[in-house]
Amino acid sequence: MACGNYFQQKWLSPILNKASPDDKNISVLTECLNQNLKNFENHFLNKNKFVIGENISYADVMAICEIDQPKFIGFDPFNHHPKLGKWYDRVREELGPYYKKVAIEFDNKLRTAEKKIPEVMYLEQ
């Protein structure tokens, strides 16, 4: 998925390089990300409850981790992707407190990094 690339160019590279993200590049990556989410939704979630069937699998865990990267920096992956949103909620429910714990830790690390270098954060969509 394009999620990791979007996260890297929109958030990680600016933090590491102390520079704002390239708006033109982010625009292209946003289009690519939306297309990838549409393809994921249509291919994997068209008939199944989870990625490879009716039960949660490693594929769902990997996919939710990918989708969380841009989500945690302000991108709405569920806009125009209703099946994706329902799948996301099912996966979170299946993972229960384990998902919540990891998600909170990841979000806390992002916010800590932002506080250390606030002048380079341009996370508005």
The whole-angstrom Rg is: 15 Å
Mean pLDDT, rounded to whole units? 90
Q: Which percent band covers the strand fraction?
A: under 5%
- Helix share of residues? 55-70%
Residue stretches low in confidence (pLDDT < 50, at least 5 long) are none
- Which structural class is indicated by helix and strand composition? mainly alpha
* Net shape: flat
Distance between the termini: 20 Å
The overall strand count is 0
User: How would a crystallographer describe the biggest sheet?
Assistant: none
Specify the number of helices: 4
The number of distinct structural domains comes to 1
CATH class: Mainly Alpha
What is the H/E order?
HHHH
CATH topology: Glutathione S-transferase Yfyf (Class Pi), Chain A, domain 2
Write the CATH architecture name. Up-down Bundle
